[in-house]
Write a structure and sequence with these properties.
The protein has helices at 2-14, 31-34, 43-54, 64-70, 86-90, 144-147, 169-175, 198-204, 213-219, 222-235, 243-246, 249-252, 261-273, 277-286, 295-302, 307-321, 328-349, 354-370, 378-392, 400-405, 410-422, 428-439, 442-463, 488-494, 537-543; strands at residues 27-29, 59-62, 79-82, 96-99, 105-110, 117-123, 134-136, 152-155, 160-163, 183-186, 191-194, 206-207, 240-241. It is built from 25 helices and 13 strands. The longest helix is centred in the middle third of the chain and has 22 residues, at 328-349. A hairpin with a 6-residue loop joins strand 5 (105-110) and strand 6 (117-123).
């Protein structure tokens, strides 16, 4: 009681800005209370902790992994916190790499190839006092020369620019964002160390920021995005942001303008590719953050209810939950497909050549929507290839299908086609044909191509206009066109047909045109009177 009274008195006399932070009271919770199942802990994370502890350091599994373990979930990633410096950690492992400048951490790599796993090891950080920290102007991008040699610096708004000052565990816990993410688990003793009643908040299903939320958002504005991400991820389990934690979000949103665009791009992808994209869209709208976080994210939120983008978000969530890989290029290609298609169709309407028109439409979308962050790298190349494949799927004859299935990005292009068919943008039969073709043997592929050729012929025949022949009136008899020895008057009066029977199928009074046989005129005056077979007037007069 006396200590609390003195603390309050000192706070009043020195002012709120210099109030000593409360680092929380250490509480060690045994396994009988927290109930974590050790079988859910990754053995490689346990090995890292054991190696550090055997070398005489403190080491714990920390962060979201502990939270998920408390909830009975198997964590996707495991992080370790220790009082060893990055150089000391690196010296204990054969494959360890120090990364980062703003926050130096160590990646300990286990395994090789696709089966490898990275355990991220960080050193306990000291609590940062904004009032005492050295102030610099600008951000890290524009003030690198000012920050050279500094270990601990914040800008004028309170945003942490560089922080590699090591400290005790209680200060490290206070430095973390949410109470449920500030717990430490020792797999050897199975004890959870809790400084801010994170276990109680986990049981109450509350996401509460440690310290003053507005101040914490100023320290690192990306915490605004993390608040949305955690709320979306845990909403299915009944978690919600504490009102005091949620209240400053909209007001603090403007701070995101000072965050480097590359980091914002990465954080946007985390929102959409961690298996809770649809829930994230709902949280952004619920919290009043549907616009203004990042331009490309604004487009995704705006189009989230359209059939195609909604199907893409749901498919991404499904793949993540099934443990399948997801590529940012595919999801962004889905989000921006409406822009590409609209620009392409406008150019086709102006009678531009289809392929250059599509390329120009894609370039326009890159310039307008993505910019210089990742729009000209591998991400853009993959997106472009997915889009360019779409009209090529219409060509199912010749060598095109065989070349298509050999392309590295064929599967992504086909999945894109499959989504278009699911929402009715294209014929379902086209997607089914490619589904069969890619899995078929050579004989079956030839049958499928024959089928495609027959469908193409039928389609072309159906598209041809039907020409109806209009009968012509019977022309008047011309004595010059009559064969020799016949009188035009006799023919007209008798009603008999032509001597050779060519027009026997048409009655004389039907008005149908009579067929005339053309005879090739022989040169000169050959035998048999061939010179008169041309039907000239003198020949007819002589016969008469």
């Amino acid at each position: 009681m006396i200590k609390k009274f003195i603390d309050k008195l000192l706070a009043k006399t020195t002012g709120a800005g210099s109030r000593k932070p409360r680092f929380g009271k250490r509480e060690e919770v045994p396994a009988a209370v927290h109930g974590i199942n050790p079988e859910l802990v990754d053995r490689r994370a346990v090995e890292v902790v054991q190696t550090l502890q055997q070398a005489g350091f403190e080491a714990y599994i920390v962060g979201g992994a502990v939270r998920d373990l408390l909830l009975g979930l198997r964590p996707k990633d495991f992080d370790v916190a220790t009082n060893a410096t990055p150089e000391q950690v690196k010296g204990l492992f054969r494959r360890a790499f120090i990364i980062g400048k703003r926050f130096r951490i160590v990646h300990v790599v286990h395994g090789r190839g696709r089966e490898h796993e990275v355990i991220e090891v960080s050193t306990f950080r000291a609590y940062m006092d904004n009032a005492a920290a050295e102030q610099v102007s600008g951000n890290e991008k524009t003030s690198k020369h000012q920050l050279a040699g500094m270990q601990h610096a914040v800008d004028a708004s309170g945003r942490v620019l560089r922080d590699n000052v090591w400290g005790p565990q209680d200060e490290d816990a206070t430095r973390r964002d949410f109470t449920v993410n500030a717990m430490y688990y020792d797999p050897a003793s199975q004890v959870v160390v809790d400084y801010h009643k994170g276990i109680q908040d986990a049981r109450k299903k509350v996401l509460r920021m440690i310290g003053d939320p507005a101040t914490r958002y100023r320290e690192d504005p990306v915490r605004i995005i993390r608040a949305v991400r955690f709320a979306a991820k845990l909403s299915g389990l009944g978690f919600a942001l504490e009102p005091k934690t949620a209240a400053p979000l909209v007001q603090s949103q403007a701070l995101l303008a000072d965050v480097p665009q590359s980091r914002m791009f990465d954080e946007m992808l985390k929102l959409l590719q961690t298996g809770h994209a649809i829930a994230t869209i709902e949280q952004l709208r619920k919290l009043g953050l549907a616009k203004g976080i990042y331009p490309l994210l604004d487009v995704a939120v705006e189009r989230a209810d359209t059939p195609f983008v909604k199907a893409a978000l749901a498919d991404t969530d499904r793949r993540v939950q099934e443990g399948k890989p997801v590529a940012p290029s595919f999801l962004l290609a889905c989000v921006l497909w409406a822009d590409v298609r609209e620009g392409w169709e406008a150019r086709l309407a102006r009678r531009e050549h289809p392929f250059p028109a599509l390329q120009e439409a894609i370039d326009e979308v890159f310039d307008r929507r993505i910019g210089d962050v990742s729009g000209r790298g591998k991400l853009a190349a993959d997106m472009r290839e997915i889009w360019v494949m779409q009209p090529r799927f219409e060509k199912r004859v010749g060598s095109t299908p065989f070349g298509m299935v050999l392309q590295p990005r064929f599967r992504a292009g086909f999945d894109f086609l499959r989504l278009r068919a699911d929402v009715g943008e294209i014929n379902e039969a086209l997607a089914e044909w490619w589904q069969d073709f890619q899995a078929a043997d050579d004989e079956r592929r030839e049958d499928l191509m024959d089928q495609a050729k027959e469908e193409q012929r039928s389609r072309q025949k159906a598209q041809q206009p039907v020409v109806k022949r209009v009968p012509r009136a019977t022309p008047a008899a011309d004595p010059r066109r009559l064969p020799r020895g016949e009188d035009s008057t006799a023919d007209a009066g008798s009603g008999a047909g032509p001597a050779d029977g060519d027009d026997a199928e048409f009655p004389a009074d039907s008005g149908a045109p009579k067929k005339r046989r053309r005879r090739r005129r022989k040169p000169g005056g050959g035998a048999g009177g061939s010179g008169g077979e041309g039907g000239d007037a003198p020949g007819v007069a002589a016969d008469a």
